[in-house]
Every structure is written in structure tokens, then in C-alpha cells.
Amino acid sequence: MMTMLPPPTQMVLREGYCEFNYGQPDPDLLPVDALRRAAAMALDTFGPDTLAYGAPEGAWPLLAWIQERTREREGVTVALDECIGTAGNSDAIDQVCTLFTRPGDVAIVESPTYHLGLKILRDHHLDLRAVPMDESGLRMDALDATLAQLGREGKQARLVYTIPTFHNPTGVNLSLDRRRALVDRAVRHGFLILEDDVYRELAYDVVSPPALFSLAPRGVVLRMGSFAKSLAPGLRLGWINCSAEQARRFADGGLRDSGGAPNFTAAMMVAALCRSGDFDAHVARLRAAYRERRDALAAALARHLPEGCAFTTPGGGYFIWVTLPAGMDADAVRHAADAHRVAFIPGGRVSIDGRGRECLRLAFSLMKPAQLEEGARRLGAAIAAAA
Amino acid sequence: MMTMLPPPTQMVLREGYCEFNYGQPDPDLLPVDALRRAAAMALDTFGPDTLAYGAPEGAWPLLAWIQERTREREGVTVALDECIGTAGNSDAIDQVCTLFTRPGDVAIVESPTYHLGLKILRDHHLDLRAVPMDESGLRMDALDATLAQLGREGKQARLVYTIPTFHNPTGVNLSLDRRRALVDRAVRHGFLILEDDVYRELAYDVVSPPALFSLAPRGVVLRMGSFAKSLAPGLRLGWINCSAEQARRFADGGLRDSGGAPNFTAAMMVAALCRSGDFDAHVARLRAAYRERRDALAAALARHLPEGCAFTTPGGGYFIWVTLPAGMDADAVRHAADAHRVAFIPGGRVSIDGRGRECLRLAFSLMKPAQLEEGARRLGAAIAAAA
């Protein structure tokens, strides 16, 4: 019967294709052995507690580890009651919408942005407004124009959803000045900042810039951290840093009051894994592997992309963002790309305002350096063919 | 630092208390060894797939097992695309609200009902209406009156949330006639039935009655199944049986499109556990243990409750529902109960229409027979003291 089943995972790779389109980790880099040890350790250490309803706030042994790491790596002191466990950032976005928004509320998003995050906001019937980015992240002049426009409509922004660090899809970091400016706007206009900080651990050159959460008064920023990229997405585990009052709103909500901690058994296993030292070792391995891949893809793109193309070389995360020669549309390249068996995400798919049609997103996380080189060669040929 | 942490689980037991108030499994009955084997088996069998983003529909190896079991145990044939994985019934209720309701929609609930389920419905700003129960479950005459009242208000019911099998808190089963009648009303009035079927595996005398889902045309009933009671709540794993179209709505939603299967790693472990035979062995052990506890508590209540008290003896599930002598209020008994170090949930807490104040909910899942006997003795003394 197993042979009749669809594949268990989201990712369906096509034979012979170079798949730049999946923002997913290489299966060879998933911590299978560490998880095997962690499962046994959690059940040995915590016994049946591992399997009971977890505290609504999350698995305390894991939250305490997150607190410690945040202090050590970011120099940021977060109280234990300013952290709430989540089932990953998708769950976090979903729950923020349920508990902190109402249908029709205005949510400002970046253009381009993480397109599947947008789908969650849409499921909650939010009124989405796009603000463009440049090489320093979200443009403050454009944000101010949007806020002014909302004022003319008699509306207020309820939240800004942003990926300020190793942005998906562009790879850029929001500059420190703009981080401060964004927090300032949030305070003055009374909106929440929903900070998607999923790539923080994957910094390849220097340390990641300070989180918006660390620059703002409590209550302004909900910072979503996750183990999806630093360990494994299937665990569905993350956390939110916020004010103690906001954390209580999550913990007191029906979902957590009824079901307890999201994904508690997995959280206890990850607590064991993190406390064993396996987390640090794994992240070091990931950084080395992805740094090599980023460098390999950047070098290959420099060699193979036709004249007039440009691309970002991000300091971390999963993505390189390519801009095609003037007048070209990434959708048109897709057809040629298919013939060359190379896949990517066209920029038009990851924005809601028509921007980015001349761009495309390449994930370098999934493929090994030789495949990335071959993919870049095929992509160059496809662009040339479509020109 | 660990010693400074709050307890990791929801349940905080008070020394020397008889805690009838937790509808939670006895930690000694949680499958620690089976889960240890399952974690290793899943990682051996499925390798890195265990840790990747799961298919949005859920972990197929687990969904296929659920399909098989539903056919074997219930004689019900469900297509593979009529099942969607969830992170337990709390998550299922939450997602049904997000994807199938809008704020202000009318949700009909039983009085009394599972009070924490109500909190989830409230977080989604639904307009809750209570319909009373009797010893055969939800009263159809009262449901018809509520539907007629809604008609006069120019409103329609969007959903009925019901626990027809081994009801929480009353322990009763909805009669077969009423099951058919409820489905009939749903078809005629166009509302969804949200069937909370979490206690199905815990049948102590005869097999569980047919699920509403099995009696209805597809699209009318969303049946929520769960491993919270049959294995372990901390896993946060369950499923919904529904129409293929409804299943697609879940799978295509932003949350699953972005994050993949809820709680995927745990789901793959449970798939391994179920396929190994450990599930059947565990459930058989649970049935024997809880049957003994139900019998012990029922016998002890018969001995210790003052005259004028009545109680249900359920065929399954976790709860016995006690009715106090005429004129007594369960809230008043609570104070006396505290002095006797026995705890329960007063009926007024589990209804929204003021009914059930003369009742109280006792969970027999957590304590062993001797503790149940002692608890019944204390409860009897507390009621006598409060009379």
C-alpha cells in the first residue's frame, strides 16, 4: 500500500531538473542522527512529561534555552515570560492574525516578500498594502506615503509584516537606520511589527544585524524565531518574542488553553538536542555548507548570466535575487527555462503590486555546488534564449 | 537553571489532593517506550523525509493507516483525499474557524460542552448559541427551536459543534435516531457539523456508535479524530475526515501551503508506531485501565454520594457527570471540596446558558482506583457539608 501513496513531503523533485524554486534545506543536511539521540534523551530525561499536555506558554526547557541563546548571541535580555512557543513561523503568523487582527484590518507587506506568508494573511481577510524595497530593505519614504494614504482613507495600519534579516526573496538586510526608523513609525502610528526572523542563524560573513525586537520598546515588535532553517522544518517549531502581556494573550487563547503547548513532544526533543550541544554543531555545519553554496552560485551566475543581468550576494539565508536585462519578464524566461530543465520563482509571484516581474528568486539551499553551477549555466542559456 | 523553571506540562497537581478536574491521561499510561521505538523506527524508515516539510495534506503514511483503521473498526470507507492531518482537535477547531467561518457567524454548541473548545470559537468572534442536552445527547426539539429563532433574527447557523460520542462533560452518547436527525437538520439548514470524536477509541463496554460523518453525505460533517486520548496529548496530532473539496481548502490554505503538514516529524513517528502494532496494544491497555477506573469511581460514588445525588456511568471516555440534590449549586460545593482536598469542574463553567449549575464533572482518567475511591469519599463529605 505504501507504494500507492503520494510522497510524504512537500518537495517533489523532477528527474534531471535544477530546482532553484524550493526554499527548502538539502535533505542531506537534515539532522537525522541528532534527532534520534534527542528523542531518546528527551524520553529518558523528561519521561512521560514529554508526552503530556505542555504548558500553554510552550516547553519551558526549550524556552529557557532560547532565552539563554538570545542573550549570548544577540546580547539581548528577554524575560522568560516574553517568549511563547509556536509551531513555526507559519503557525505564528496565523495565530497573530487570529488573536491580534480582525478581518479588514490593514497589513503592510514588503514588495517583494515571502509569498506564502501573504496567503496566511489573506486567509484572515486582511487588507494588504505593499511597500517597495531597495538594496537597504523596506523603503521608508514609500512606507510614509502608504501611511499617509491610509490616513486619507480614514484607516490605520494594524501591522507590518517584514523579513528584515536575509530577506526572502531578495537576500538583503534592512539597514540599521531604517530599522530604527521602522520602529519609530510603529510607535508613532500604533501598528505592530511582525518580524519574521527565520534566517538569523544562517549568517555566512558577519553576525546578523540586530533584530527589530531588540531596538523597540516591548509591545511593538513580535519577533518570530524558528527551528525550520536551523534544524528541520518538519519539526514545526519556533517561538515569538513579545511583551509579557502579548505572551499572556497567546497563552490564554483558546487554542493553547485547550491543547497546551503547540507541538510539545517535538519541542521537548529539541530542548534535549539544543542542550546537548548538537544544535551548535549542526548550525556550524549548515553555515559552512550554505556559505560554500552561496559562493558557488554567485560565481557561477557571474560566469553564465547574459550581459545586463544583476544579482544580489546575500550575507545569509537561502536566496539570490536576479534582475533580468531591461524589458525582460521572468515569466517569459520560465518557458525557456523549462526546456533547459531549470526552475525558479518569477518575481511577479512574490509581490502583490506588480513589481518584480523582471526579477527571479533562486534558492541555493537545496543543491550542491556542482548542481548550482550546472543550474546557473542552464539559467543563463534560458535567459539568452528568451531575450 | 532548570530548577527555576515553571513545570513543563499543563497539569500542576497539588500534594494530597484528589484531582477530578483534569481531563488528562494518567502519566503512567503514556506510551514512553513505544514512542522511543517509534522515533527510531521513523528515522530509520523514512530518513531525512521525517524532518522535511511534510505534504500539506499531512503525513501520508499516517493518513493511510487512519484510512485503514476507519474501514476496519468503523466499517466506513473514506478516500485518501477525504482526510487531512491536524495538530489535534484544538488546532482542528481553530483552523475550521479560520477557513470556514467569519466573525459574527452563528455557532451552535451543546449545553454543557467542552468549555475550552468554546474559547477557541470565541477567539474567532463567533456568535455562540447553546442547545441543551439530555441523557440521549443534544435535544432535537431545542435545536429546532434555536434554528427557528435564528430564522426570526434573519440569521443562519454556520456550524454545530458537537461531541456525540462519550460526551465531555456528560459522558452520554447521542442516540442513533438523533444522529440521523441532526444530519438531516444540517442538510436542510445548510450548516456544517463539527464532530469532535476524540474519545472513540476509549469504548469500555460495546463498540462506539457510528460517527455522524458516516451517516451524512460528504461535505456536511467535519469529523475530528485525535491521538490525544489514544496515545498522548503532547504529540498534538489528529485528523479531519471531510469531503475532498473541504480537504483541499485546508491543504491550499496559507498555513499548510507555507508550513506543510502540521507537526510532521511527530506524525511520521506516530505512523511508525501505529504500523508496528504498538497502537493496538496501547489502546487495549488503556481500555482495560480506564474501564477499571470508571467502574471503581461509579461504585465509590454509589457508596459515598449523599442521597439525592445522581450520576452517569458512561460507556467510554474520561468523565462522570454528577447531579447534586435539588437546589444545590456546584460552586457552593467547591469551597467545601477545597477543605476536603478534592477538586472538580462545576457545571456552570462548562455551559454558556446558565444550565448545569447543579452538576459537576469528574474525570476518572488521571487517578488510580484507590485514589478514585478516596476522592469519591471526600466529594461525598464535601457535598454533605455544603448541603
Tell me what the structure shows:
Chain A is α/β, with parallel strands linked by helices and 387 residues long. The first copy, chain A, folds into two domains: 18-30 and 280-386, Aspartate Aminotransferase, domain 1; 33-277, Type I PLP-dependent aspartate aminotransferase-like (Major domain) (Aspartate Aminotransferase, domain 2), CATH 3.40.640. Helices cover 42% and strands 15% of the residues of chain A. Chain A has 13 helices and 14 strands. Chain A has an eight-stranded mixed sheet, with helices on both faces. In chain A, strands 10-11-14-13 form a four-stranded antiparallel sheet. In chain A, strands 1-12 form a two-stranded parallel sheet. Chain A is globular, with a radius of gyration of 21 Å. The termini of chain A are far apart. Chains A and B meet through helix 1, helix 2, helix 3, helix 4 and helix 9 of A and helix 1, helix 2, helix 3, helix 4 and helix 9 of B.
Round the Cα radius of gyration of chain A to an integer and report it.
Answer: 21 Å
- Number of helical segments with 4 or more residues of chain A: 13
What distance lies between the first and last C-alpha atoms of chain A, to the nearest angstrom?
48 Å
Mean pLDDT of chain A, rounded to whole units?
97
Instruction: Characterize the main sheet of chain A.
Output: 8 strands, mixed
Descriptive terms for the model:
homodimer, 387 residues, Aspartate Aminotransferase, domain 2, 8-stranded mixed sheet, 4-stranded antiparallel sheet, 13 helices, globular
Quick summary of this structure?
Two copies of one chain form a homodimer. By secondary structure, chain A is of the alpha/beta class.
